[in-house]
Amino acid sequence: MYRILIVDDLPIIVDGIVSLLRRQLKDEVELYKAYSAYKALDLMNRTNMDIVLSDIKMPGMEGIELLGEIRTSWPSCKVIFLTSYEDFGYAKNALSGGGFDYILKTESDDMIVQAVQKAMAKLESENETSRMLELAEQQTKRAGSVLRQALLREVVLGELALSTEEMRKKFREAQLGLSVEQPVCLLLGRIDAWEGIALSERRTSMEAMQAMVEEHFAGVVELTSFTYDESNLLWLFPLCEDMPSVGVERESLERIQQTCRASLRLPVSFLITQSPVNWPEVPKAFAALQFLLLGQEEMCREVDLTDTMTSVTTGSEVDWDQSKLHSQKLKKIELLGHYLERGEREQFDKLFSEIMSDAAGGSRKGFRKLEVYHALAAVFLSYLNVHPHDVNKLAQYGLEMLTHVDSGRSWEEIEEYFAGLAQLLLQCAETSESDDGHDIVRWINQYIDTHLMDDLSLSRLAELVHLNPSYLSRLYKYSSGIGISDYITLARINKSKELLLNSSHKIYEIAEMVGYQSRLSFIRFFKKHVHVTPQEYRGRKAVQG
Q1: Cα–Cα dist 116/136, whole Å
Q2: What are the C-alpha distances in Å from 116 to residues 1, 20, 65, 109?
Q3: Which of 166, 192, 222, 321 could be a cystine partner for 301, CB 3.0 to 4.6 Å?
Q4: Among the ranges given (36-40, 352-356, 495-499), the one the predictor scored with the smallest mean pLDDT
Q5: Residues 327, 328, 332, 338, Cα dihedral to 10°
Q6: Phi–psi pair at 35, nearest 5 degrees
Q7: What is the rounded distance in angstroms from the CA atom of residue 491 to the CA atom of residue 494?
Q8: Other residues' Cβ atoms within 10 Å of the Cβ of residue 58
Q9: Of residues 48 and 517, which shows the higher confidence score?
Q10: Closest CA to 372 of 346, 341, 336
């Protein structure tokens, strides 16, 4: 809706134009009156106007002066002059001062309406242009932000090997605001758990945590940050010589944690380098921070450490004998997948209990437990990828822990989760095979019998019944006692015998009808299983007849 102000020292003219526009434009406009230029300006100071229809000759302040005031304070407002015939030349010249249009007072009502509609169309066009320019500016800013994020990610993760000069150029092009000559400190922040936070709200929560950290350090250091996964943020900042501690003592991080817990209902951990790091060493420093944070006992929450507050190292102090032993234990997890696949419940339960007991008692660091956690999740995800099950039952159990570590759970809760999921999968497999196996086998057999000339590969048959090939093969053999390929061979032999004894089709025609393009291949196949050639088998009928 457009606001239109009618200005004239003759009320009858003002009231007449208001009545005309209200009748012709109805809900498109909001109409205002003023009987002098002074009253018009007073009204415009209180209410923003889109279009002004003003008499060009008025006592006190004339229309031309009013135009000057409007152009100064409200440059987007469109001014249309109402003029008499003798002032026609005067009004025309006034357009060069910024007026939008002029109308003779003797013009018809249609001309007045058309002039107003023309001004409305111009405003709409300008608004659209303004919106497009604003959108383009936002996109440019976003593109610049994406470029900076991508560059930081590549540098910090060590994916981009650049010389100092090349890095300086990249930083300048991305307007990064960091100097390659100045060492930086790294602050790693992690949201430890997402209890009660929907997926759609997590990005907002991450942005809120980011804002809290940056507000805390506002005026102290200039932080540059990027998100490297759904729960982790990294900030980089230069360490000034006159600010050796930059206010990042443990108490500062604890205050941020308390704010996040109170405002966002989120547990947050932090890890920071107290000493500045030269840019070539940033990837190593980042990897070390990740290792230290992941390596906390029980994958604990709300950690706030510096890299000098722990003895964990990544070099010669690693216990390689223990690592080798742990690696052997991880191989046992792969065997769990074998037991799960074969439905061997007793063997699965025994090995699973052994693995979880070793992980709970033998690893002093949460990093080792995290490794076991992911290995178990990989086994179950691989199984689910191969075997279809009752989706509703599995969804109710909750599969999100297979793709996202819930660091708020104890090791006992994690063991209970995986054990429960295993029992549910084994139960679903038994029920599915018992109820559906025979129906699928009957359908497959019927399809094979009537489509011997077509593609009968395992992948094609699995596609037809919407099952994974490996699962279909196991289900078919479990339900029928023979393999799919064995049944296909039997069906081709039986059909070949039928055609040889009860039809006049030539040998090469029968070969094609049972799925062989080559006559010789068919003869070899037939003789292998019937121990005579097709011609000899057909000849027996003639002898018997």
Answers
A1: 30
A2: 13, 11, 21, 11
A3: 192
A4: 352-356
A5: 90
A6: -105, 15
A7: 5
A8: 20
A9: 48
A10: 336
Which tokens belong to 154? 């590549």
Contact residues for 489 (Cβ-Cβ < 8 A; gap 6+): 529
Residue 49 CB neighbours (<10 A): 21
At 54-69, the pLDDT tens digits run 988 888 898 888 999 9
Q: Token digits for 193? A: 């758990």
Higher pLDDT, 111 or 133: 111
Q: What is the pLDDT of residues 483-499, one digit of tens each?
A: 899 999 999 999 999 99
Residue 310 CA to residue 200 CA, distance in Å, equals 36
Helices 345-362, 320-342: inter-axial angle, 10-degree rounding: 160
| Residues in Cβ contact with 333 at an 8 Å cutoff, skipping those fewer than 6 apart | 355, 372, 375, 376, 379
H or E segment to which residue 29 belongs? strand 29-34
DSSP 81: E
**Are 500 and 533 contacting, i.e. CB atoms less than 8 angstroms apart?**
no
Which uninterrupted H or E stretch holds 304? Answer: strand 304-306
- In the sheet that holds 78-83, the strands lie side by side as 29-34, 2-7, 51-55, 78-83, 101-104
Q: Exposed e or buried b for every residue in 172-202, given b needs 16+ CB within 10 A?
A: eebebebebeebbbbbbbbbbbbeeeeeeee
Region 494-519: what's the mean pLDDT?
91
**Would you state the structure tokens that stand for residue 439, as one six-digit string?**
């129906």
CA distance 37 to 60: 8
